[in-house]
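chain below, 120 aa
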Amino acid sequence: MSEKTYLYVCTGCGKKKKSPETASKGNGDTLLSKLQDVCQDEENIEVLPIACLSNCDRGVSVAMTAKDKYHWLFAEKGENDDDIEAIVRAAKAHASLHDGFLEKPDRANPVVARIPPIKS
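prediction:
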């Protein structure tokens, strides 16, 4: 069985409009709710809120992590179907991989960071 993948959705995003460019890039609370609905039956994916991912100038951010796997930070996410589909596709791929290293077609671009797993 693969390790559970956790999606952390920045719920601070969309509340404090830092600039006109980020003002139109979505709302973290809305994205969180939609992702939780879509992923409710996914055994290996859990969607959780996080107050801030410190990526405020890039719209709504989503972090993806799992034990002993690569961690990812995606930005500029909205509540639209294309973004939700891309995030869920990435999470499903991540959950199915032994190391969580996503190939480019499976990433929910834009990628802000790819962080290697902790060496044990």
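The two ends are 20 Å apart (CA to CA). The mean pLDDT is 90.
thats it, cya
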